[in-house]
Amino acid sequence: MTENEIGSIVIAGAIEVHRELGPGLLESVYEAALAHELTERGLSVRRQVPVAIHYKTIFLEEGFRADLVINDQVILELKSVEQLSKAHRKQIQTYLRLTDTKLGYLLNFGVALMKEGIVRAVNGLPE
């Protein structure tokens, strides 16, 4: 399955979760619900994945935690805020760069319409 095929399933799943639960809950609730939804749709989902990174001459065993990793190909960063900031957008781009992952999504469940809370991020993924 390609990154873009996974992405289509992720978007449909996120919209379904938001439609069922609505905005205003904790990020952890959306994470659990989305993990369940995507698993039900046939994807492999890992939650709160520790990601090791290299910094100069040292190895950091847990440089960050990815909220969700889908099929070991797509990283999802979830938020439940009124509005996304530039820092949120840079965060997902940094995750992609540090892991050499080609596709990621920043999903904000705090908005009234889920389509307004979806940010697609790429790192060398051909269109």
Brief summary:
By secondary structure, the protein is α+β, with helices and mostly antiparallel strands. The chain has helices at 3-21, 27-40, 86-99; strands at 45-55, 58-70, 74-79, 103-108, 118-122.
Describe it.
The protein has helices spanning 3-21, 27-40, 86-99, and strands at residues 45-55, 58-70, 74-79, 103-108, 118-122. It is an alpha+beta fold and 127 residues long. It is globular, with a radius of gyration of 14 Å. The protein has three helices and five strands, in the order ααβββαββ. The two termini are 15 Å apart. It has one domain (3-122): Trna Endonuclease, Chain: A, domain 1 (3-Layer(aba) Sandwich), CATH 3.40.1350. It has a five-stranded mixed sheet. Helix 1 (3-21) packs across helix 2 (27-40).
Tell me how many strands there are: 5
Radius of gyration: 14 Å
How many separate domains? 1
Low-confidence stretches: none
**What is the structural class?**
alpha+beta
Beta-strand share of residues:
25-35%
Strand/helix succession: HHEEEHEE
The share of residues in helices is 25-40%
Strand order of the largest sheet: 1-2-3-4-5
Q: Which CATH C-level class is it?
A: Alpha Beta
Stated plainly, the CATH topology is called Trna Endonuclease, Chain: A, domain 1
Number of helices: 3
Question: What sort of overall outline do the alpha carbons produce when their principal axes are compared?
Answer: globular
- Cα end-to-end separation: 15 Å
